[in-house]
Amino acid sequence: MASHIKSLYRPVSCGLARLSSHNVVLTANRFTPPAFPTVANGLLSRRRNNGDGGRVGLATSCANLSPPLADKYKTQKEKEDDDNKKKSGKKKMVYQALGVGVLVGAVLGYQNSQANKNKQIANESNVKEYLLAEKPPEFKVARSITSDNDRSGLKVTLFQYQTCPFCCKARAFLDYFGVNYDVIEVNSVLRTQMKWSKYKKVPVVVIEYKDKILQINDSSVIVSALFSKLADPDSNLEQIMDCYPTIRFVEADGTEKADIQNRYFLMYNEAKVNRTKEDIVEERRWRRWADDTLVHTLSPNVYRTPTEALETFQWFDQAGNWPNLFSVWERYLVIYVGALAMWLIGKRLKKRHGIKDDARESLYDSCNHWMKGLKKKGTPYMGGANPNLADLAVFGVLSAIEGCEAFSDARKHTNIGSWFDRMKEAVGKRRGQLDL
């Protein structure tokens, strides 16, 4: 039946850079310095000026002096030296605390990896990789999204980080088209909920389809494959998934890589789709832009400084409902270790993806580029009167930073807010169900 699929595609190879949903930083002012720093050598001294024969050199032990009295005999330089020592001590304590957090996270991650390495249930590569030998283990469901009008006939479970832009993109698609699904929130440091899978990234959807268990990886493949199925309910999901093979290769440095082919292509099985080829190609171009350009402006913006990185993860904690899903130590491990990691990673990503020195400018440029394309289209959405997959991709990516200072600034300095609010309403009301 796969031979009857009209794909309108050529194989493409485009890897997705992922953001980890982990991060954090401790600020120095969390540590209280000693009430009274030790004076060098335990002595306060006043030296006699040359020619001032009326004064005698004085050396007094400050061990028994109160702090105010000791400070009275300090020179300005000594006071400045003490201030510098305090600051240096604070920084040292911060880095030591963060180092311990990273070490603890690494040890726990390794222990979990060793404990679960023999429990993976994915099939071998010589079998269809998307077919699972058995159901994944049971995990606490963060929430269940249901709709009375779901016509997919699929039982879907989404493994995700709540604020990962790729996960937000997959979720926007499922919500807009009214697909029922359960959410499993993954701990972004320990990743306990993904130990069963050979594929460790998120999002991942596990689908009970007929008598099979399917695992679909990569947000763009999730969207393309499920939309192809929704557009033609009579199509076979297994045959659709056969159109997204994984190609493995070794780079010059010996690193093994894997790439999923055709991730942006829709596999219509003679479905009656009222769309032009030009419209489909344009949608595909914008979807690729969201993954290759827009998403890379996020990390350098929301993790610009240690403080902003920490605030971002604190919002993640709130948005992801972590207090009800993870233990206290797991939450703080993710928040503080994650913020530190992403602050450092954000700097590297800024250089890798050519982000401007003022990262905000790159975010504004991307928002303006999208709005310029929308203005040229002359319609409320890139899909015309209703959102298409490009609208959902861009909305999903931006919704990942909706609660961050960076997106608040983008709303102030660009016109992205009006379109974003329209999309939020459309997705919230599941208007895509009317298009199917």
Coarse shape: globular
Radius of gyration: 28 Å
- Helix amount, in percent? 40-55%
Q: Spatial order of the strands in the main sheet?
A: 3-5-4-6-7
- In whole angstroms, the N-to-C terminal distance is 22 Å
Please give the largest β-sheet: 5 strands, mixed
Contiguous runs where pLDDT drops below 50 for at least 5 residues: 1-69
Strand content: 5-15%
Q: Helices and strands, in N-to-C order?
A: EEHHEEHEEEHHEEHHHHHHHH
Contiguous helical run count: 13
The count of strands amounts to 9
- Assembly classification: single chain
What would the average pLDDT be, to the nearest integer? 80
Structural class assignment? alpha+beta
3D structure, described in words:
Helix 3 runs parallel beside helix 4 and helix 8 packs across helix 9. The chain is of the alpha+beta class. The chain is globular. Residues 1-69 have low confidence and may be disordered. The strands form three sheets. The protein has a five-stranded mixed beta sheet with strand order 3-5-4-6-7. It has a two-stranded antiparallel ribbon with strand order 1-2. A two-stranded antiparallel sheet has the order 8-9. It is built from 13 helices and nine strands. It has helices spanning 67-72, 76-116, 165-176, 219-231, 237-241, 277-292, 299-302, 306-319, 328-352, 359-377, 389-399, 405-413, 416-428; strands at residues 43-46, 58-61, 143-145, 155-160, 181-185, 204-209, 212-217, 246-250, 256-260. 37% of the residues are buried.
Observed structural traits:
alpha+beta; two-stranded antiparallel sheet; 13 helices; 9 strands; disordered N terminus
